[in-house]
């Protein structure tokens, strides 16, 4: 029996050293360990703020799927995201989770970063303020939140190894990367903080005493726990002394190793007690949501409505020439693109989830317009899909494959066998009963019947050496491909080997894949053991484009769905390019040339270089990765039922070369083997960069609506000159158009004319989103900004924040004014 609430911290003196150390590690990928003897329960943790994932690495329980975090950033709506947090707490309880691992507040430093889709913005204020709204909502629901990743984990390439060559007390970290965390902690009190994989100034974040003790707990007064990212610990002693409370997902450098270090005197038991007490206090605060019930998924209308509201609030209308949008219900529509039938919901990695349901744009839009003709268009996949169950047959006649495991080279000793609808084996550290490592093999066999004749593609994704045969003849083979556990989980294309084979329609082919198991167990991480049989039938790209062109010629409007999905943007790897794939570009241009009007709906978490198509299309709607209600949210905007109100929270540069970080991303391995990241752009991230003119396609804060807004009467006042004095900005906003809409009021501060250091020409210091304004309606919007946050910069010489005296500018829309700061101010605290 577990203890009642508020008793766990009192149990510290009763714990043995081994039990205290046990509390400081996970027991598996989803759970922090407890202490059974004293009834201290484990803690269930769950990713993420886009949808609460079930426990385990390969669980198949669905969950409510919300839009990606970059979409949250584009809402600029704290109240809405607070309601999201409350719903996430409810979803977490359905999965018996006490801690939600998120939100992610790393900065959109470069448009290739694979994990940008699950972060808010290039701007620290938006990132911190919106994240705090989600944190507060989650914790109002009785569940803990654990924002991540502290700090500067802004690339996925070699993320376990790279060193960010910046001082903790340098301007880039203090004004951009740490600033997001500072804004978060000004506005919320999260139960946990997850550390980053990377190093900062030569020290791993999991053992960075300066970051933990001096900044996080010292200057900022943070009281919650700190936990590592999965397999981000590299030492036994240093993380304890730095203040890392929890190693996840299980004891690699703790457990028996840490007990031995305590007994040897390298770590004191008092240091262990301090960390264990944090973990006990966390249980006292989250015990109310602990549940022994099975994990489940419950579909609720209220949840779907919230997901839909968030999606349409964050979608951004980027172009709308000739009032192409909204589209009249009487229009005939050509709907083109794979994503129009197979909807994009989420990015890849730990921020992904299995949606409770998916509405395809095709089924939704057919209910909206007079007629809708559909063409699939070009293929958008990055990897060859796993073979479809409807064209394969196992020996028992059911759809699927036969899988057998062997412990000898002769394949005559079957230790385990099964039939499976999926043509794959996927194991990570936990293997089938009786399977030996090393020394085992797996065989996947099936009868495959293609539906068409042509040069089809067979592919395998194998962690070991393999042989692939068709009707007993070898068609492909290959050695084991060295790959890290992380890349095995996230970057499947690294394991893929393709071969083209000529096949006849409706002909049966006996396909067999034999793979050798791992030749040794991994050290420190679970061992991957996987094989997948993949298949794609031939098609003509030219024919696919012509099909789209054909229906476009006979329609009033063509809507082309394009962009990226979770195969392109994911945890674990970065993009190589931000250009649209060439085949998508060809499709869009060909369709646009034949269309009366062309609307481009883009799915992406990162900016896309649209240079090749932007002049061909009439309207562009950024739909992000919109979750399970994305299709209906998009329909709301395309039809004009709701006017778009999303604004970009990240600059869209015209080309990759225009981005300030372009020459300094991704992390690069040096001659001595080290991996480094240089923030050569300094604080000039995104819109803050100096001299931006023609490089920007769509600027930070940009987004069209179906109306227009007029600003007037900007007034600014200060209630004193103390650091916590408030600058009050008020401005009147009038809907000057013909439809109801909301606007985002963005407040930028410009520096004094004479400064000791270079400062950006303007910086966002406050924002709010209006209520829906009817045509002709006018409201006065007031935003308060604390003086120390509004005007300061980080003084590297003094190691403190500094406000210089002088005249500061305020910009709100087309309104400008100034205010005076009479004297210099210097301080160093939250």
Task: Throw out a few tags for this protein.
830 residues; alpha+beta; TIM Barrel; Rossmann fold; 4 domains; six-stranded mixed sheet; 21% helix; disordered N terminus; carbohydrate metabolism; hydrolase; polysaccharide degradation; Glyco_hydro_3_C; GH
Concise description?
By secondary structure, the protein is an alpha+beta fold.
Task: Give your account of this protein's structure.
The protein is of the alpha+beta class and 830 residues long. The chain folds into 4 domains: 9-289, Glycoside hydrolase, family 3, N-terminal domain (TIM Barrel, Alpha-Beta Barrel); 315-379 and 539-635, Rossmann fold; 389-536, Jelly Rolls, CATH 2.60.120; 709-827, Sandwich (Immunoglobulin-like). It contains 16 helices and 42 strands. Strands 15, 16, 17, 19, 21, 22 and 24 form a 7-stranded antiparallel sheet that branches. A hairpin with a 2-residue loop joins strand 21 (466-470) and strand 22. Helix 3 crosses helix 4 (124-140), helix 3 packs antiparallel against helix 10 (301-314) and helix 10 (301-314) packs across helix 15 (630-638). Residues 1-5 have low confidence and may be disordered.
- Alpha-carbon distance between the termini? 41 Å
- What does the overall shape look like? globular
The first-level CATH class of the largest domain is given as: Alpha Beta
Which structural category fits the helices and strands?
alpha+beta
Strand content: 25-35%
- Relative helix content: 10-25%
The total tally of domains equals: 4
Put simply, the count of helices is: 16
Strand tally is 42
Superfamily at the CATH H level of the largest domain?
Glycoside hydrolase, family 3, N-terminal domain
CATH architecture of the largest domain: Alpha-Beta Barrel
The biggest sheet amounts to: 7 strands, antiparallel
Catalytic activity: Hydrolysis of terminal, non-reducing beta-D-glucosyl residues with release of beta-D-glucose
InterPro entries: Cellulose_deg_GH3, Fn3-like, GH, Glyco_hydro_3_AS, Glyco_hydro_3_C, Glyco_hydro_3_C_sf, Glyco_hydro_3_N, Glyco_hydro_3_N_sf
Domain PA14: 396-543
Enzyme class: hydrolase
